[in-house]
Amino acid sequence: MAAVRSVQKLYGIGLHSIRQNTALKATTLLQQRAFRVCRALRQQPFDSSAEKPQFPGASAEFIDHLEFIQPNVISGIPVYRVMDRQGQIINPSEDPQLSKETVLNFYQKMTLLNTMDRILYESQRQGRISFYMTNYGEEGTHIGSAAALDPSDLVFGQYREAGVLMYRGFPLDLFMAQCYANADDLGKGRQMPVHYGSKDLNFVTISSPLATQIPQAAGAAYAVKRENANRVVICYFGEGAASEGDAHAGFNFSATLECPLIFFCRNNGYAISTPTNEQYRGDGIAARGPGYGLMSIRVDGNDVFAVYNATKEARRRAVAENQPFLIEAMTYRIGHHSTSDDSSAYRSVDEVNYWDKQDHPISRLRHYMTARDWWGEDEERAWRKQSRKLVMEAFERAERRLKPHPDLMFTDVYDEMTPQIAKQKDAMWRHIQQYKEHYPLDLYEK
Ligand SMILES: Cc1ncc(C[n+]2csc(CCOP(=O)(O)OP(=O)(O)O)c2C)c(N)n1
Ligand SMILES: [Mg+2]
Fold first, then answer.
1. Pocket of ligand 1 contains residue 276 by CB under 6 Å
2. Which CDD domains does this chain map to (predicted)?
3. Mean pLDDT of the chain
C-alpha cells in the first residue's frame, strides 16, 4: 500500500479521481503507472565529474594492476543444516519446532513415496508399465520444500519431484493411472509415465525436454507479480538441467524482472551417467546465483528441516520483496536414473551404499522422531503394512482399468481438429482394422 501511495503522490492521483473509474480500471492504471515509475526510479545515477568508471554495465572502481579474478572466489559455499546425521538438532534456534502431527506426516509421505517407487519400479521390470523413475534418496528435498509452500503456489517440476505432488494431496490412484496410462489419467494416456500434472493442485504438467520449465516458470512468476497475488512460483530442476541454455534465460529474466520465484535445484550428483565433476567447474549451482543477482543458499537436501526452513524463508521474502531465490539442495540419487539405466556401469556399490545406509533423509527423520518417543518399531511395522496395502490396492485398481479411447490421442492440441490430424486419425483406424489381432480394442474405453 505504501508503494501505491507513493505512486499516487508522484503522479498527483487523488483517491477521488480513482473512485470515478471502475475498480478494475483503477487497479490496471495504477499497476501500469507503478511499473513505469519503478523503471524511472531504477535509472542509474550519472555523475560525469567523478573519476570512476562510467560504464553503464557495472558499478565498480578502476584498478591499476593487471589481475584476473579467480574462479574460486565463490567456492566452498557452506551447506545449511538443522539436524546432524543422527537426527539431532544442532542449533536449537534453527529448529522449526514442527508439531508431532506435522513431523509424522512428513515421515509418512516420505516413506509412502518410497513404497510407491518400489512397486512401480518392479512393475516396469515385469513389463506392466513402459518406464519409471524413482525418487530414492531425494525424499527430503520434496517434502521439506512442499511443506513450506502455500497450496496456491504454482509448481514447475522436472520429473523427480513426485513427493511434492504427493504432499499436495495427489492420490495414489492418479499416480498409478498416469503410469498405467489408463482411462483415469488426467493426461488421457498421452504422456510417458511420471509426467504428472494437476491443475487442481497447481502443479504444471512435466515436460521431457530438460530445463524448458525454467523460463516458463520465470514467465509465470512475472504474471504472478503483475497480479499482485501473494503467491510464489517454485521451479524444480536437476543440476544437470542447469547446464541448459534455458536455465540462463530463466535466471536472468526472473532477476531483471524481479519475480517472486524460487529456483529449487536438486543437486543429486549425476545427470544420468555424468557425475557433477564432469558437468561443471564452479562450485555447484549456488555459486552461479550471485552472477545473476539471485539471493542464493545451499542446503543439506537430506535434512528435511533445513529444506523446510530455507524454502519457507525464500517464499516469505520472494513474495514480500518480489525477488527470485535460488536454493541448491545437496542430495544423492540412490536409484538408477530411470528404468532405462544401469548405474552399476558408472558408479560403485560402496558409493551408493554410503548414502543408502549412512546419510539417508528418511532414516535421519526417523532418528529425530525416535529420540522424542514419537515413533517406534511397532508404529513402523504397522505403517509399513498399511502403506504397502494402500499402494498395492491402487496398483491393482489401475491395472484393471480400461485404457482411454484411442481417439483421444488426437484431441486437445487444437480447439478444432485440423484436416491433417483428421487424416492421421483415419489412417490409424485403417491400420487398426487391418492388423486387428495386434490391437486388443476390448481393453480400451468405447
Ligand atoms: C534437452 C534434453 N537433453 C537431454 C535429455 C536427456 N536427459 C534426460 S534426463 C537427463 C539428465 C538430467 O540430469 P539432472 O538435471 O541432474 O536431473 P536428475 O535426473 O539427476 O534428477 C538427460 C540428459 C532431455 N530429456 N532433454
Ligand atoms: Mg542430477
1. no
2. TPP_E1_PDC_ADC_BCADC (cd02000)
3. 92
